[in-house]
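Q: I have two molecules that I believe assemble together. Could you output structure tokens for the complex as a whole instead of separate predictions?
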Amino acid sequence: MTPLIAYLLVSALLFSIGLAGALTRRSAILVLAGVELMLNAANLNFLAFWRYDPHPEELTGFLFVIFSIAVAAAEAAVGLALILAIYRHAGTSDVSEITEMKG
Amino acid sequence: MAFIVRTLWIIPALPALAAGISATLRQRQRLLSAGLAIGSMGISLALALCAFAQSLVDPNRQVVNFRWMQFGSDWISLGWALDPLTALMLVMIAFVGLLIFIYSTGYMAHDANFTRFFCFLSLFAAAMFGVVIANSLLLLFMCWELVGLTSYLLIGFWYHRPAAAAAAKKAFITTRIGDLGLLLGMVWLYSQTGTLLFYDHGAGCLEHGALTSLLGAASVAGIPIFTAIALLIFCGAVGKSGQLPLHVWLPDAMEGPTPVSALIHAATMVAAGVYLVARVYPLMGLSHDGIATALKVVAWTGAITAVFAACIAVAQNDIKRILAYSTISQLGYMMLGLGVGGVSVGIFHLITHAFFKALLFLGAGSVIHGCTEEQDIRYLGGLRRFMPVTFATYTIGTLALCGFPLLSGFWSKDAILHAAHNWSVSQAPFYLGAIGALLTAFYMTRQVCYVFFGERREPQTAESPRAPEEFCFVPDPHESPARMTTPLAILAILAVVLGFIDTPAWPWFTSFLERPEPALATASPVAASLNPALDFGRFAEAGLLPLMLMSSLIVLAGIGLGWWLYGRKPTTRATDPDPLERVAPPIFHALQKRLYVDELYESTIIRAAHWAAHVSAWLDRWVWNGAVSTVRLLVTGLGRIDASIDTHAVNGGFDEACHEVSQGGRLLSRFQNGKVQNYLRVIAAALVALAALLLWRSAA
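A: Yes, here they are, computed for all two components at once.
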């Protein structure tokens, strides 16, 4: 069985990639994609720790991830809608240009 | 208590009301103003006659007192009293006042400020009534000051003339000096007796209890307290009645309109001083033994004033000034009479004098009115043909004033001389009085000769002293209208007959006025019944007849001398020297200059006042101002230091701190630049740092 550390490494890699994407991309959509990656890295951590838990028959981590995915889907929908609205309003989706809340 | 006693206050209230209404009238409402004044005076006269009748029926003093004001725990009471003295004065003032009011409607007919004149006159009458009915020294003092105020207003009635304005001020300030004494005396009296009411059913300051306690009080600097108080009160009388040395204002007061001179400065107001002395006579007469010091002072002041003013009157040329000095002299006689004789002697002369002096002044006013405002007797002359009524009445007034036998002045002046002759202290006042009588007869004859006899002399070319625009040249003098001559005639009749109310054969006046008081049984030697019998035998008493003969001779000598000098060869030209001037020029000039009293005051008191003013001004400018400036500099200096501390230290510190805070804010605000990824980077860095920390902790 693959040791826990491998899962954690993959998860950390996934998180780092997501973080780098969120930090460096200009496009708001790609930033959102980075955020999703980091979220999934966290989900992977949950699953890994659940699997290697002394009581895997209690579906705690699994249920948490199911919820997390559902929330992430909603979040993605809301985030995309926001991005769309900002694009319509400001004419751009470049996050470095959107510096003001004031419209 | 009789109705009239309770309503006595209406007598002064009516003229006061008339004055108040008059003050609001317009200049054109002449008839209304004069009507109000004369009407109120007429009603007052009627009430005064009622009061007089009441005091005839019941000569006991009746008082009405009321509480006025609370001082700490003490109440100050005011009130009025009706006694023979008050009743007589009321009738005299109301009667003379009414005649003068009527006369004024003619005399002031052309004056623009007719309503103002009557307003002041009514106010004066109200105040004067107040003086005589007052039963409280305080109320008397208030009315006294009101009288002084109206005197000031009326002397300065033609205030556009600098002389009138100056005379008004002089009168006001000079009498104020005397009033200060009166005020001090009043305060002292209050502190000694605790009341200012004259009569208060045994508790008044002129009644037995208070007088006894005053007699028992300690002396101050060798002077008994009662004498000191009496003399201080007498100071007020000296100022008001123009006695030496405060007489200087009265001749100058002749700048006022002539009816004012007649009413205020001859008949009533100047007599208020005499009245005051008569009113506080029980206090004046207080003494441990013999004759009171205060009365001696009164007698000497009166005697010296009588002669002094008569001397000056000899050399004056202004018709009204001669009468003014004559008034001063006669007031001196009244004081002499009060000092040596008693209340009735002084007051009898006051009453007769009021009538014949008012007559003389009104006659002088008639002359002035008829001769286009000419007042210098050298430029008048021969008026007996032009103004027969004025001439006849004026001559009667003159004879009455001189003391011509059987006229009113003869009886009253004789009573004074008789009392002075019997005075136990000294005979000198008697001789002074006799000399004064001689001089009086002389200067009045001189005046009459100048004005009415001889030929008319050419008028002065100088401008009229009164409003020049009203000046219209009348070549011949004319007789005055009936409303001016009628009062003259009435007063002339009274000047003749009034003396008969107190002849030695029938001393009604004396017995009316000097009923023996229970507390002061020794004040008057006369204790006759109210209606004394006619008894010619009294003429034979104690050298009375020789004295009367002698005084008649003196008067005739004075008149004869005057006629011999002035009437025999009338002066034909106004610029000719006076016959007396030819005889003794230095004396005449000294008298003409009024014995240099004004100059003396000018060079001493007024100069001293100037010096004091200068010193005060200097002190004010340099010392007090310097002190104030130093304080000011100190305070501004402190202010400057404070301001610089504020600007540099406090403000600088705050500015610096604010700058730092705003710099810090600027620095921190750089982090919040709205770039979301930057925030995320910070969070990431912090996360890394947290992870490193946790790793390092778990490793350690």
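A: One point stands out. Chain B touches chain A through eight residues (CB under 8 Å).
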